[in-house]
Design goal:
- This protein is mainly α.
- The protein has a two-stranded antiparallel ribbon with strand order 1-2.
- It is elongated and about 55 Å long.
Length: about 130
């Protein structure tokens, strides 16, 4: 997530700032993006099915409820769309290793969705915390 924060800061600084070698002060939003990114990096969790419903389980909290909610929201939204495909693979009679490989391949399809979700949610949270919303 730190890479996302750096990329967002670079994108917002513009080409002229890239030519200037003096360090530029960060805006309040950029500072919040960095803090949120660092917290997101500490979060650990995953998805599970409970009574047939996809749920998010946090194994290690980031220490920030909103950051935890972003991580879970991204997974539930993006992986939720793929749950029927994953269920089909899991219900099949193929070997366990092949199931894992197929589920991994399906999950990789959710990465662009999760990246976009994170980017939008982090920006909104950063703007809110910086008093810009």
């Amino acid at each position: 997530m730190r890479t996302l924060a750096i990329a967002l800061m670079l994108a917002s600084s513009g080409a002229a700032a890239a030519q200037d070698t003096a360090p530029q002060p960060q805006t309040e939003v950029e500072e919040q993006i960095v803090v949120i990114g660092e917290r997101m990096h500490t979060w650990n969790g995953g998805l599970a099915k409970v009574d047939g419903k996809l749920t998010c389980r946090t194994k290690k909290s980031s220490g920030d409820e909103m950051v935890d909610a972003i991580r879970c929201g991204a997974m539930l939204t993006c992986m939720g769309e793929l749950a029927p495909q994953i269920d089909e693979v899991m219900a099949s009679d193929i070997a366990r290793k092949e199931k894992q490989a197929q589920v991994q391949a399906i999950a990789e399809g959710a990465v662009p969705c999760m990246d976009a979700y994170h980017k939008t949610a982090v920006m909104r949270l950063a703007q809110s915390r910086a008093g810009k919303l």
